[in-house]
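Run log, item B.
One chain of 166 residues. Sequence copied directly from the ordering sheet:
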Amino acid sequence: MNCWILLLGFAATASAETEPPGVRDAIARHENELAAISRRLCNARIAAADSQSYKFAYALADLQGNGTLDGIVYFKDPGHCGSGGYNLEVYRGTEGGFEFVSGTVRVFGPIRALPEHPYGWATLIVNLRDEREVLLRYNGKAYPLAPPPKVKATKAQISAAKTVIE
C-alpha cells in the first residue's frame, strides 16, 4: 500500500512497512469502544476489532501546530465506506501512540490540510462524491461527522493547502 506522510511540511511517499507504530492499535481501540457502547445499549453481538484487518492510507501531520505529529486515516475497506464515500478519522499524536479525536463519513480524496488552526486544529479539505472540495473545520470538540456540502473551499484555500493523502 502506498501512502503519504507529511513531516513538518515536506511530503514523501512511504510503504506499509513504515506505518507508524500505534496507528492500527488506536483504530482498534476506538472501534472496540464503539462496539462496547452498542453492546451495552442495544445488546449487539459485535466481535472485537482486528487491528490487522484495516485497509487505509494515512498521513502524519502537525495538525495542532504544536510540533507533535497527528494521524489522519483515510479508510479503503468496505467496512468503512458507503455509496457517498469513505470514512476519515483524525488521531492526536501522543508519547504513547495515538488517540481518537474525530471522524467524518462520506469523503473522497485527496485530503488536504490548511495552515489555519481554528480551535486548535488544522482545517482539512476533502472531496464529496460530486467532486466538490469542501472544508472540514474543527469546532472545538470535533470535525463535522459529515462534510458540510455548502462550505466549499476557495481556489486560494486549495492552493494554500498541503496534500496529505492523494
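Observations after the first pass:
- The radius of gyration is 15 Å.
- The first helix runs from residue 23 to 42.
Flagged for discussion on Thursday.
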